[in-house]
Amino acid sequence: MDKEQQSILRTLGVANNFEVPVEVRRRADFLRDYLCQASCRKFVLAISGGVDLLAAGLLAQAAVSELWADGYNTQFIVVRFPYGEQADEIDAQKSLGVIGPDRVVTVEIKPAADTTVEAVMAQGEDLVEPARKHFHVGSIKARQRMIAEYALAGSTGGLVIGTGHAPEALVGYFTKFGDGAADILPLAGLTKRRVRSIPEHWGAPSELVFNVPTADLGSDAPLHPDEEVYGVSYEDIENFLEGKPVAEPTRQRILKTYRTSGRQRALPVMPTDRIAG
User: Fold this and answer.
1) pTM reported for the whole predicted model
2) What is the share, in percent, of the chain residues with pLDDT greater than 70?
């Protein structure tokens, strides 16, 4: 492993060692302690049929349950954001059954998202590359969901939980100010293998734990696998993050993607900032 790869792993917070019970305890404590320190009373999490949201949901529910036992009046709110008929609805309902949140809220985002798309296209259609229209619509959906999440969190004194983890951060695969926006990231620094181990630890059904990762935002291709968007397999990404051997062409592709996706991970730049490199 060269210095650049070591630097990336440090930046993303990927640990050399991982023990499931220890990490489950540490991350549940992190959620519980931060909620109290922030003087907040609620956690808000958008839910789908994906394992990332299942893992984050189980950690949040464990933290809230412990706070209740200690006499702290709190609540875990899970939000379902359908865009019309969602392809992942069955798995999402199964995940809700496993997590057992205190409250479930459903917010239909299709009217708001479609209105935004129509308004943009009314005068800016020539600015939208036709081949990427579905990509841009997917980003609008993701940001519309986050608008609603923060509406709920803001009105209830809550914190929005994000599900960002090391592979997504590595390749910049998230919508900035959409699913990339959050107050707290309990899965940060974890590889996908390690994320899966959290619901496995609690005995979640294998069909949910090993569900094919997808953002489910593209209207043209529902449940399109993340790996096909990455252009690199999760196996290779995981091996890179865990310091295991990766074919050199693949390794170079991962490094190039990391270098060119820095804008996704960065805070807004200021006049005092200097461009790296």
Assistant:
1) 0.90
2) 92
Distance CA(73)–CA(91), nearest Å, equals: 30
Q: Smallest Cα–Cα separation from 263: which of 154, 171, 162, 132?
A: 171
Q: Give the torsion through C-alpha atoms of 189, 194, 199, 204, to 10 deg.
A: 150
Lowest average pLDDT, out of 45-49, 130-134, 244-248, goes to: 130-134
Q: Which residues contact 206 (CB under 8 A, 6 or more apart)?
A: none
Task: Give me the CATH code for the 18-227 domain, please.
Answer: 3.40.50.620
Give the pLDDT of residue 134.
Answer: 86
**What was the pLDDT predicted at 173?**
87
CA 225 to chain centre: 15
Provide Rg for the chain, Cα atoms.
19
Burial of 16 (0-12, 13-18, 19+ CB in 10 A): exposed
Residues with catalytic function: 52, 168
Beta-strand runs (E) in the chain? 42-47, 75-80, 103-106, 158-160
The counts of H helices and E strands in the chain are: 13, 4
Burial (0-12, 13-18, 19+ Cβ within 10 Å), 172: middle
Burial class (CB in 10 A: 0-12, 13-18, 19+), 10: exposed
Amino acid in position 24: V
Angle CA 1–189–76, to nearest 5:
170
Q: How confident is the model at residue 218 (pLDDT cuts 50, 70, 90)?
A: low
